[in-house]
Fold this sequence. Notes:
Layout: H1 9-21, E1 24-28, H2 30-37, E2 43-49, H3 52-63, E3 67-70, E4 75-80, E5 83-89, E6 91-94, E7 103-106, H4 109-114, E8 124-126, E9 135-136, H5 141-147, E10 149-150, H6 156-162, H7 165-177, E11 185-186, H8 188-197, H9 206-217, H10 223-231, H11 234-238, H12 240-243, E12 250-251, E13 254-255, H13 259-279, E14 284-289, E15 292-297, H14 303-311, H15 316-319, E16 321-323, E17 327-329, H16 333-347, H17 354-365, H18 368-374, H19 379-389, H20 393-402, H21 409-433, H22 444-451, H23 457-471, H24 479-492
Parallel strand pairs: 2-5, 10-11
Antiparallel strand pairs: 1-2, 1-8, 3-4, 4-5, 6-7, 8-9, 12-13, 14-15, 16-17
Helix pairs in contact: 1-3, 6-8, 7-9, 7-10, 13-14, 13-20, 14-17, 16-17, 18-21, 19-21, 23-24
Amino acid sequence: MVEGVLEHPIFRIVSDTAGRSGVRAFVIGGYVRDCFLGRPSKDIDIVVEGSGIELAQKVGEAVHSQVSVFRNFGTAMLRYHGMEIEFVGARKESYRRNSRKPIVEDGTLEDDQLRRDFTINAMAFSLQKEDYGELVDPFGGIRDLDMGIIRTPLDPDTTYSDDPLRMIRAIRFATRLSTPDRPFTIVPESLESIRRNRERISILSMERIVEELNKILVCDHPSTGFRLLDETGLLEYILPQLTRLKGVETVEGKGHKENFSHTLEVLDNTAAFEKEAIAAGKLKDYYFEDGTETSRTRTEPDLWLRWAALLHDIGKPATKRYDPQAGWTFHGHETVGARMIPKLFQRLKLPLNEKMKYVQKLVSLHLRPIALVTDEVTDSAVRRLLFDAGNDLDDLMLLCNADITSKNPRKVERLRHNFELVRRKMDEVEEKDALRNWKNPVTGEYIMETFGIGPGREIGILKEAVKNAILDGVIENDFRSADAYMRKQAAAMGLHPAPGCHPDEEPERQPSYGSDGRASV
Length: 521
């Protein structure tokens, strides 16, 4: 028995309940693995030689906890003292070639361990009184953990052909479990098997594939997973937009940056910078509650920021040009990339709501702060960036900082120094002008009421004129200044206030926000 790992009272309760019910129960899978890795885990899987649902219901009665039953999957789940415990009956599985849905039969613990994906996930702790806490490890999972290897219990061709999702899970575990002190690798024969069976992922739903991709993206070093996806040939099936970034073309002795490696470096930089910012409490997530905008300090990685980092350069292949004077250029790749996002999200079955718009916005804007580094920084340019980025400014700045990469350390140091100057300039302008998530002081309704007109192009022209005047510093960012400027511009267009209409107080406006709480800009 591993000292201390089964001290939580739920384990004794399950053990006693199983004993009274005449069934054998074991803790299996990720909880056991994480115990040996010294990682905290609140998810417990219990496998039962018998009915997992019946044992769960009896345990639920004993601890006075509601049990959720999923009869289609033969599982049940309950929560107790901060732990989430899932019960399943031991089973054996067989597969048909054209489906990843197994034919399931009741089985023993040994049968259940044989169907597990990897040796490190097949280990179990006994909950029987006679050998309570003893490790059951028929495939050497503890040895593989010590060696830092991902290996299948059965022949890998059988494991991956039966359930192709396991190919991506192998890559996800190699990414998630790796640390600087102990990297995890997939054994060579398993890597070769993934290459041979890569076409089998065509039988998977895109939702299941993306679920694994999302878990890879929020790891500390997500590039590990995407390099393995590329090496095994899976990436070409899942995200061909990324594989098109590979390679360096040379003309007249001039080559461009290898954009695939650059993208993965930016992705890892983003993960590292976000982790630092979260630890320092510097990032906030904005949302609306009861019609009022509020924020909370970010405590977990933002999946959609990681997607923006992964996709920030996908427009480069379509915009790559060689100019004899300028060398290789990718003009407009941020605009082309942003236009690609909706179709890509649709194919991947990712949400087409404000989350997609957030990724699209960051891809579209990711060059803007970098441009301020190399050009003279004007208040007008900063105001426009503040206006366009809104509450996503901090994430945009983090992504742009992560995008500063070079094999020349001095160049990186110089650019990052200049980038900090821009950041300070933005803080100064933001403090003075309050332009983040800016709303136009004059509304279309107010313009129509003031001039006694209906909807028409004049309204858009006047609102745009006011916006540009504020962003260019021509007028102050307040209602009185905006109202006076609007009236002056309207007079030049031949529009005059309706009789009895005088400068009014700022009209009350309701906030505008998306379905997930992100503010509309």
